[in-house]
Each structure stands twice: as C-alpha cells, then as structure tokens.
Write a structure and sequence with these properties.
single chain; alpha/beta; Ribose 5-phosphate Isomerase B, Chain: A; 5 strands
Length: about 150
C-alpha cells in the first residue's frame, strides 16, 4: 500500500519505529517529517501529508503528535480527508468500518510502539462497510463542497 507518514517533534521517535514496521511489512511509505525532536509546528508536516492522501498519490496516511488531537484537527481541514484519532484497536476498526478513515492520528505521549503497531494492524485489516455509512460520507463530501 502507498502510505504517507508525518509527525511533529513529540511524535518523531514513534514515527521512526512505525516507519520501520511499515517498510518491513511491504508498504511504500513517504515520510513527510519531522526529522528530529526539535520543537516545530505540526501543521508544517501534517498538511502536506494530508494533501498527498487527498490527491490520491497515497492511499492512506499515518500522522502523529503528542496527543493526536492537533494532528487530526489540521488533517481534517483538507477536503477529502477523514482523519480519525485512534487510541485503541476498537477506534481503529470503527474508523475504517463506518467512516472509511483515510488517515489515522496517533498520540505519541499516550502509547508505545507495540500498541501503535497493534492499532495499525487493525486499521489496515478493516475494510469499509458501505451501506448506510456511504450515505453519511456523501453528506460529508457535500458539506466540504460548500453544500
């Protein structure tokens, strides 16, 4: 799968570990940074990563900040993005099953690499259920278009 990954300084170490996991799992991953634990502004990495997913150049994205909240807020400003903050496998499952989330946001300060990998495995292995949920996504797209 073609993926993007991005983090802020708080998520840098978790991103490094997840990048290894993703590449070892056979995914093609483009890293949008950041490249250190030096303080930076998360929109600088999250916005370009989200735009890559929205454009279709990547199938899905993983974004990481300290809480996962700021990253998910900024990603969801990009039309076509359905970023879901997930703190466990349940969240990951339903973000895909009901919401067809194309970006997952993780909280580096609240989980270790093993937990993040468990969450990603569930997220990657869950498909979109469609049906009544598609109707809801259509309404989201309409709102994004100004309707």
């Amino acid at each position: 799968m073609k993926l993007v990954i991005a983090s802020d300084h708080a998520g840098f170490l978790l991103k490094k570990g997840l990048l290894r996991f993703l590449q070892n799992s056979g995914h093609e991953v483009r890293d949008f940074g950041t490249d250190s634990e030096e303080s930076m502004d998360y929109p600088d990495t999250i916005i370009p990563a989200a735009r890559e997913v929205a454009s279709g150049k990547a199938e899905r994205g993983i974004i990481i900040c300290g809480s996962g909240i700021g990253a998910s807020i900024v990603a969801n400003k990009i039309p076509g993005i359905r970023a879901a903050f997930c703190s466990d496998r349940y969240d990951a499952k339903y973000s895909r099953l009901h919401n067809d989330a194309n970006i997952i946001a993780l909280a580096a300060r609240k989980m270790n690499e093993d937990k993040a990998v468990e969450i990603l495995i569930k997220w990657f292995s869950t498909g979109f259920e469609g049906g009544r949920h598609q109707r809801r996504l259509d309404k989201i797209r309409e709102a994004e278009a100004g309707g």
